[in-house]
What we know:
Number of strands: 5
CATH class of the largest domain: Alpha Beta
Oligomer: single chain
CATH superfamily of the largest domain: Glucose-6-phosphate isomerase like protein, domain 1
Strand order of the largest sheet: 2-1-3-4-5
Structural class: alpha/beta
Strand content: 5-15%
Number of domains: 3
Shape: globular
Distance between the termini: 49 Å
CATH architecture of the largest domain: 3-Layer(aba) Sandwich
Largest sheet: 5 strands, parallel
Amino acid sequence: MSTTQQNRVLANLREQYSSLAPTLQLAAKYVIDHPADFGIDPIRTTAGKVGVSTYSLVRLSKELGFPGFDEFRDPFRRALRSTSKPAINGKWLNELSAHGPTGHILADSAENAMSILKHSLSQMTPETSEKFVDVLTSARTVYITATSTSYTLASYFQHIARLVLPNVQFIPRDMANPIVDLNFADDRDVLLAITVSPYSQVTINACKFAREKGLKLLIITDSNLPLSELDPEAVLTAEMESPYAFACYLGVIAILESLLHLLVIAGGDEAAENIKSYRSLKAKIDGTSPF
């Protein structure tokens, strides 16, 4: 059903294309040519890719009879989620959805979560992942920064990564500005920044300052286009769509977990010994068995 709705919208776009204003034709052509990206990306990202304003996308939505952009994009999002159902037991989803309103909500949430994981990890190519690992493992000091919800995820990543990269630091320290912690960094160091829409100006300024100081820059975000002017060494992008009001960070978490896995493998025997030693010490302190 979701794919059928998407195809109807695409057919309508083709029919009305010639009667649309030139700017709206640009947007319509993009949707026709890139339905999957359109279903994933937020409005600002789509506008940036097309080269039009967000207002133009809203206008196109209303030209097609939708109340707004979200309603216009919804059939494309649903089509994406339906194509990812084989990754999860479809029968279980159907049975869950049949258990009243709560079951339907849980099924929708599970379907959305699997879609986010699939599309986030599918964009994590071996080439980009290897670039991340190479830059991180060859740096004198690895600085990690983020704000808001991403702050917690960055802290978690640093907590585990330090077992493989003893030179990793989470900034800002003492709730200061991360630029203060970068003051004595140079081209032997790297900054790993996690930021998603709406992009934190504090994090963006830290990235700009790091580039001015000659640091290498790695970014984990929801779209590399708005941050392309920072000229990072590599970017990993996560899908952030959610069935409720706030963004879903499952894609970011999956990327961070995959990076940690790669770093542990790259660390070899030394990393394995560090992890073993940490677990033994923690068990001793906590009074529990390390096994």
